[in-house]
Design a protein that fits this description.
Layout (H helix, E strand, L loop, with lengths): L8 H5 L2 E2 L3 E6 L2 E4 L22 H6 L6 H8 L2 E4 L1
Antiparallel strand pairs: 1-2, 2-3, 3-4
The structure holds protoporphyrin IX containing FE (HEM).
């Protein structure tokens, strides 16, 4: 608790390219997924969520609704909203 820095959604929107870093949110958590983009089993579609929330995309692609995916995402957490 309190171990992560706090970011605004506006700050997250500034990170939507590989050059600036690729950040996403899920719930109230912020993730820097820059190093995962090239590893994503779903390819470059992941960039649609860059700088914003994962939820609208993961509703459409329910393959993410699995414990192993959430654990993987957790490795990239850098902050909270
Ligand atoms: C598949 C992770 C974002 C589209 C997967 C899988 C993982 C993953 C681990 C394989 C799951 C399995 O087969 O058990 C992630 C993470 C994301 C992310 C960590 C964000 C940080 C997205 C976004 C989209 C997307 C935003 C679409 C806009 C897909 C699709 C597949 C997939 C279509 C299926 C690929 C296939 O099996 O052919 N993702 N994903 N993903 N993802 Fe993502």
């Amino acid at each position: 608790v309190g171990a992560y820095p706090i970011f605004t959604r506006e700050e997250v929107t500034k990170h939507r390219t590989l050059q600036d870093g690729v950040w996403v949110t899920f719930g109230d958590s912020v993730y820097d997924i820059t190093d995962f983009v090239g590893l994503h089993p779903g390819g470059s579609k992941i960039m649609l969520a860059a700088g914003g929330a994962l939820e609208p995309f993961w509703v459409m692609y329910a393959v993410h609704n699995q414990q192993h995916v959430l654990e993987l995402l957790g490795e990239y957490k850098v902050g909270e909203l």
